[in-house]
Amino acid sequence: MNNPAQGDDDADRSDGRRRSDRDLTEGAVGGKLLGLAGPMMFGIAAVLSVQLVDTYFVGRLGTDPLAALSFAFPIALTLTSLAIGLSAGTASVVARGIGRRRWNSVRRRSTDALMLGAGLATVLAAIGLLAAEPLLMLLGAREPVLGLAVAYMRIWFVSLPFVVVTMLSNAMVRASGDSVRPSAIMVGDAAANVALTPLLVFGAGPLPALGIEGAALGTLLARFGASGFALWLVVRGEGLVRLRLPDRRAFVGSARRILAIGVPAALGNASNPAGMAVATALIAVLGSQTVAGFGVATRLEAFAILPMLALSSAIGPMTGQNLGANRIDRARRALVVAFLLCAGWSVLLAGVFAVFGKALAGIFASEPAVAEEAARYLHIVPISLWGYGVAIVAAGGFNGLGRPLTALGYSLTRILVFYVPLVWIASRIDGSGTVYLAVAIANALAGLAIAVHSLRWLRRAERATR
């Protein structure tokens, strides 16, 4: 086996000052990992809250605006997945460069990544502005909902380059070992959105009521502000980006490295919501109350797994820096620690939902029968969520290692090999309890298979470097 720490062809090793508390190649693995994941948990929670805030305020406008938002959501989710994938590619190449102490290369790759992302986002935004109406019609939107959805998405598309710039800039800083300031930018973005949305939707004083367009405009203004802070951080605060035109050959090389990881990462990130959409369609044969209960439970689950999502964001910089420093042993130990944390959190969630699941479901459910259905899910599935955590953490770790196809394989293994097939079988055999048991079994089997494969691969890579 080739030395996995090899791969970049530049030999620049110009020195740069680094703070020891941000060097992920030294110190306690668990402490470094938690130091990165802790702030990210708050940042991710803030980002998830934006969709809830828009849904809440737009829902007060009536059924048609809320339906328009529902049609817009799949498009927004798909493009956000692309941005997350580019962020994963950026974080991977930057973290490995930092681990090798190749500072000129780090600055070059960071600058190229930002220009690549901003350029792609601008092109996609322009296409979206032109194709918004036919795209929404393809999804099934019809008047009067279509007009509302088009109005929302045309403003949302303008915000796309700003969110991509923010995400890429934050990824670079996380790759350097600092997740506090990126998380602060994410929280600030969400707070601005929460403050602006009701004012723009319903109007206040001299501000006119803009309806659903106000929700999109609030998002645009918040993202514009966040991108300004993020750019300042990477240009002036960290010195990771130099605002000058790149050399064509260097830019093409950087783009290839970033997209080689970014495209599979985007596909992997989109696989879970796609799998849940398929599962929702499969269990529709069990009735609308089952579908509604499943929806309530999975929305609660999305917030309950925040620590696991934070770990999946933190593990890439850990594995990437240590690969660059030829410390595969530390990368393997980081995965082990993350897997154990996922297991512990899953046990805690199972206990919480066993006691409070029905009460929590009742807050969001439209009627008692839906709450009962959601509670049934929450009494069965959470004990298996360690398997889901293992899948997303391993994918994040292997993206950091520059193994994007392996990472994508982990995501698709859980969804295509276990989750969707077992849910399909269970939905044709018995009621919802059997379906939820199938979800739990799918999580556990996928987690076990992925944990074994990932740790064995790292053990072999570790031996090859000795």
Describe the protein's architecture and organization.
Residues 1-20 have low confidence and may be disordered. Helix 2 (63-99) runs parallel beside helix 9 and helix 13 runs antiparallel to helix 14. The radius of gyration is 22 Å and the shape is globular. 82% of the residues lie in helices and 0% in strands. The chain contains 14 helices and no strands. By secondary structure, it is an all-alpha fold.
Structure summary:
The chain is an all-alpha fold and 466 residues long. The protein has helices at 29-59, 63-99, 103-138, 145-175, 180-202, 212-237, 248-283, 288-304, 306-324, 328-364, 368-380, 385-400, 404-429, 432-464.
Write the layout of secondary structure elements.
Layout: H1 29-59, H2 63-99, H3 103-138, H4 145-175, H5 180-202, H6 212-237, H7 248-283, H8 288-304, H9 306-324, H10 328-364, H11 368-380, H12 385-400, H13 404-429, H14 432-464
Helix pairs in contact: 1-5, 1-9, 2-3, 2-4, 2-7, 2-9, 3-4, 3-7, 4-5, 4-6, 5-6, 7-13, 8-10, 8-11, 9-10, 9-12, 10-11, 10-12, 10-14, 11-14, 12-13, 12-14, 13-14
Based on the model shown, name its key terms.
466 residues, mainly alpha, 2 domains, 14 helices, globular, disordered N terminus
Q: Helices and strands: which structural class?
A: mainly alpha
Q: Please state the average pLDDT score.
A: 82
List SSEs in N-to-C order.
HHHHHHHHHHHHHH
Which value, in Å, is the CA radius of gyration?
Answer: 22 Å
Low-confidence stretches: 1-20
Counting structural domains, the number is: 2
Helix content: over 70%
What characteristic shape results from the CA principal axes?
Answer: globular
Number of strands: 0
Major β-sheet profile? none
Helical stretch count? 14
> How much beta, percentage-wise?
under 5%
Oligomerization category of the chains in this entry: single chain
Distance between the termini: 12 Å
